[in-house]
From TrEMBL:
It holds the Pfam family GmrSD_N. Residues 60-202 form the GmrSD restriction endonucleases N-terminal domain. This is DUF262 domain-containing protein. InterPro entries: GmrSD_N.
Length: 389
């Protein structure tokens, strides 16, 4: 294929959330792509128990730690005051709330996966998440009765109505395999603003993996390489750190075993949660490799790190997750002094690929979870990193 035969590069589309760009390129699937992986379920492995709790009971469980609202989850902040107030108004009007979904672990601890924002809002109003809770604003039916009031200002009958409200919860038994549990939550995750894959993983995971990923994405080095991506509203920062951990721990051969990104990342989350799979010393090595990768990426590519930056292009595109995987894992293997000497040659090689190698462009643009495309982008990226030797 000659240069003149190369098709136009695929259009770069940024992910948006609430009409605001997230700074991360959207991943797309080609229309005729095969399904990621065939994972038939054994119905006998799926155990879902339906239970009812009063809101008072649910709030007590949150306070005593037996019901977890996924610490440091970011998306609760996107609910506007009127949205929060109208949820409380619905409770006061005794309008039944949609069912909640909890995941239970072997210790009896339950985590909220579906209904997180609703329970967080109710908790903040009743128990004062921001010291005294929030005032009710923009109500539709109860303006004269409770507009402008906080929970502590409500008459006793209104408080009892909130406390006595019954919520229906579907609790997934801990004997349900984790990948099946994850797929169940993907299927039922159809609320007003559905959780993305990493947000679901975060809600289902334990404190250990959450801490590992939070530490990785809170570093100065990560934020320098990604233009302050840490604390991302959709947890794309945590997903990128998790992808690095997955390929660092299991490599591309490990990826081929799962043949799809979701089960690969879900397996990595389980490994990070289990000290027997990844002990503390190994976590230290992971953090150091990640820090080194970020330092090297910023050194070589500066503000263009992990972004499509073809020849003849001077703008800055959103971060591309496939490029993040390949370049971070590759650059973690090099010493900074070596890369500093060859920086220009590596940049030229990388930009040439993004201008002239259409297979490479496909591998970082659409159906990026396809095993062949994963292998191709890692191999070609590794070759580009050798430029100037």
């Amino acid at each position: 294929m000659t240069t003149s035969d190369i098709p136009e590069p695929p259009k770069i589309t940024e992910e948006h959330f609430l009409d605001t760009g997230t700074g991360v390129e959207a991943e797309t699937e080609v229309e005729d792509a095969p399904p990621e992986i065939a994972r038939p379920w054994n119905p006998e492995q799926i155990r879902v128990n339906t239970k009812q709790f009063s809101l008072r009971n649910a709030l007590d469980m949150i306070e005593d730690g037996s019901l977890e609202l996924a610490p440091d989850f970011q998306r609760g902040i996107v609910w506007k005051p009127v949205q929060k107030s109208r949820l409380i108004e619905s409770v006061l009007l005794q309008i039944p709330l949609p069912a909640f979904y909890f995941a239970e672990d072997t210790d009896g601890l339950m985590r909220v996966v579906d209904g997180l924002q609703r329970l967080s809002t109710i908790r903040d109003f009743v128990r004062g998440g921001d010291e005294r809770g929030f005032e009710l604003k923009g109500l539709e039916y109860l303006q004269s009765a409770v507009e402008g009031k906080r929970f502590e200002d409500l008459p006793a009958p209104w408080k009892r109505r909130i406390y006595n409200t019954q919520i229906v919860t579907n609790v997934i038994d801990p004997t349900t395999p984790s990948d099946v549990m994850y797929d169940i939550f993907k299927r039922i995750n159809t609320g007003g603003t559905p959780l993305n894959a990493q947000e679901i993983r975060h809600c289902m995971s334990k404190e250990r993996s959450r801490t590992i990923l939070r530490v990785m994405t809170s570093t100065v080095e990560f934020n320098a390489a990604t233009n302050n991506m840490g604390g991302h509203i959709r947890m794309n920062d945590r997903e990128m750190a998790l992808r690095f951990a997955a390929f660092w721990l299991m490599g591309t051969d490990g990826y081929a075993k799962y043949a799809a990104m979701d089960p690969f990342l879900q397996r990595t989350t389980i490994m990070l949660d289990n000290v027997k799979d990844v002990n503390d010393a190994r976590v230290g090595d992971l953090h150091e490799a990640f820090r080194k990768a970020m330092v090297n990426a910023h050194l070589v590519f500066d503000e263009q790190a992990f972004r499509k930056w073809p020849l003849d292009s001077s703008g800055r595109n959103p971060i591309n997750r496939a490029l993040f995987e390949a370049w971070s894992i590759t650059l973690a293997k090099y010493e900074t002094e070596d890369l500093e000497r060859r920086r220009e040659a590596i940049v030229d090689a990388a930009r040439f690929l993004m201008k002239n190698d259409y297979q490479y462009l496909e591998a970082i643009t659409s159906s990026t979870g396809d095993v062949r495309r994963v292998m191709l982008r890692f191999d070609v990226t590794a070759q580009a990193a050798e430029a100037g030797k």
